[in-house]
Design goal:
Largest sheet: none
Helix content: over 70%
Shape: globular
Number of helices: 7
Number of strands: 0
Low-confidence stretches: none
Strand content: under 5%
Structural class: mainly alpha
Oligomer: single chain
């Protein structure tokens, strides 16, 4: 009996496809050839993409810990694994992980992250403050 295999597309496949596009873009772009009238709009568009990517990483960080792969890969903690992947300090990765856990309980902050209105640093500050005063989340 022959069994059909599923070709389920993963979220990571979608992101890798976007990365392939950016790899080509970055490889061919000549900043001095971009018309000056486009520079600010291009920069702003790239900033939005960067913010959305950072927001997605922030939202996913807690799941990296839950997955437990960091243990199998020989890391002492999920924060250590995130730091190794991102090339950041363990402290920065730990802050991102803690913010990810806090944001899970902060719907307005999560919504602002998903919409691209918040940077990771702002989300971290809001999540820390909202943990102390949850009723202030909307105002923050």
């Amino acid at each position: 009996m022959v069994t059909a295999t599923s070709t389920r597309r993963l979220f990571a496949d979608d992101v890798r496809e976007i990365d392939d596009f950016f790899r080509v873009l970055v490889g061919r772009i000549d900043p001095d050839a971009v018309p000056l009238c486009e520079e600010t709009d291009l920069w702003a568009a790239l900033d939005t993409i960067e913010r959305r990517a950072a927001s997605t990483k922030l939202l996913l960080a807690r799941r990296v810990e839950e997955a437990g792969r960091w243990k199998r890969d020989g890391h002492r903690s999920a924060a250590e694994q995130l730091a190794a992947i991102a090339g950041t300090s363990v402290t920065a990765a730990r802050n991102q992980l803690e913010t990810s856990k806090r944001v899970r309980k902060l719907p307005a902050t999560e919504k602002a992250l998903r919409s691209g209105r918040l940077s990771g640093a702002k989300a971290e500050a809001i999540a820390a403050a909202a943990e102390v005063a949850p009723e202030a989340e909307q105002a923050l």
